[in-house]
Fold this sequence. Notes:
Blueprint: H1 10-40, H2 45-54, H3 58-69, H4 74-84, H5 87-95, H6 104-109, H7 116-123, H8 131-159, H9 166-181, H10 188-203, H11 211-229
Protein name: Putative branched-subunit amino acid permease
Keywords: Cell membrane, Membrane, Transmembrane, Transmembrane helix, Transport
Subcellular location: Cell membrane
Amino acid sequence: MDITLRHSPTVEVRAALRDLAPVMVGLAPFALLIGVTGVRSGVGGGTGVLSSAVLLGGSAQLTGLTMLAGGAAPLALVAAVTLVNARFLLYAAAIEPSFRDQPRWFRWVGPQFVVDPTYAMVTRRGDLADPGRFRRYWLTAGVGLAAAWVGLTVLGVVLAPVLPDSAALDVAAPAMFLAVLVPQLRARPARAGASAAAVTAVVASPLPDGIGLLCGIAVGVLAATLSDRSPSS
Length: 233
């Protein structure tokens, strides 16, 4: 008797949600910080929430919100946000093979979710070679991340009057993100970059206007580059 074992489509959905849960624990203070920053900087909580829905990237959001509050020119603001998010181009190039055999609609929708957590999640798994499996996992992770990120930003806006000083959140956000993200990164350059970025962001957190996060990004990129060039990497 021929018995055919069918793969359940829900396997990737459950796996993505399971992998996403600890990531969101680490990202929660970061998302709250976006909402708090929007309110306390004077640009408005709605702007903070909108930035979460459009950018889906904490570092770029903090950069944009602080520059907007400081009266930066639109061109300078766009240039800064683009520079901060430039690393996503590298992520996209790395996982591009997974998008080649996908439906056209997915090739348009899927890249919207190319961010640090989703990249880390898919690159640590070895069971997503099948286009359908990758698509289900990626969409579940991306939509789940976006929904949680926006929801936590809204919560930050609501709780802004009672949350601690933003300086405390400045430290908590990268510290918790470091604890969750680094163990998921297998490649040495990625681990070195993420570690250096998070530690630098914590140390430089007293700097005003999100400069500490920008310093973290710069140091992280440098550390990843140097590690990648190391003969032992």
